[in-house]
Amino acid sequence: MNRAHVFLGAVASILAAGDAAAAWHEDEAAIMGTGMRLELWLEDEAAARAAIESVWQEMHRIDRLMSTYKEDSEISAVNRHAAARPVEVSRELLDLVGESLELSRLTGGAFDITYASVGYLYDYREGHRPSDQEIAAALPAVDYRHVRLDADASTVSFTAPGVRIDLGGIAKGYAVERAAGLLRGQGVEHAIVTAGGDSRIVGDRRGKPWIVGIRDPRASGRMIARLPLVDEAISTSGDYERFFEADGVRYHHIIAPASGRSARQVRSATVIGPDATRTDGLSTSVFVLGAERGLELIDALPDVEAVIVDSQGRLHYSRGLERPREAT
Ligand code: AMP
Ligand code: MG
Question: Which one, 53, 56, 72, 286, has least CB within 10 Å?
Fold first, then answer.
């Protein structure tokens, strides 16, 4: 897809908010361990409130299903028992795990939900990281091929001990994609739903594109680019989201499955495409792959584009993107 148009007209569209501001509705929430934001156009006030409420309900529902922090979530049951026996799960969880495994095959294992077999040993809030010995002991469990799905029985099982899975690299994109579907079902034609680094855009901003900024990974509040988008999804994975520093090294939440340590080649990876589940999974993947292999992957896929900030702060764009002017 040629996406050269994507960077055009960024300034003009900022004027979009002028028309009948009363019909624009905005709300924020903290769900799935992240900040969420929703903005939509609906003339009927009560319908707008109902639409917003339905989105937050949906986010809570997905969180109850997929959070590894909740003891009673389906995924926690899988992590407790799937090494011993197949664990029956909802079709929804089965499908998202299936999509994650497909992404693992596509990325040569850069995206791997079993990263959690070592990932759980990190505590970013406490500034705790595993020792070399602990990583070495946990690493054999990191391999998506340990995860077996039985579609007929709707079960997940693990073929090795010590395996854990975590959908943190794809669930927020899935959630905003679901939210967009819910909104469309309620007649919403103009909206943006954001969960952390993942945004799903419904339609345009009433005659103008929506503007989504890409953060400068080392200067909060500063943008390195602003992208005008219509009816698309955009996901950014960054090493500034959850991290701590020790001895001058940044330990952050995106783990290279091969080493069990934070991926080091880039500071942020942004992926734009038609589906937020996919852009979320791909942004995490590209982050792990690095600029060169990441862009190779993105350029081989017909419907997605990427912007990468590498470990030196240099920008890299996929083929369909034109270099934007520096954002101010
Ligand atoms: P994102 O911001 O979408 O890149 O998601 C980051 C989250 O993805 C982390 O907090 C982990 O929960 C999860 N994650 C970390 N490393 C990987 C990996 N190599 N493959 C899949 N998920 C990962
Ligand atoms: Mg992701």
Answer: 72
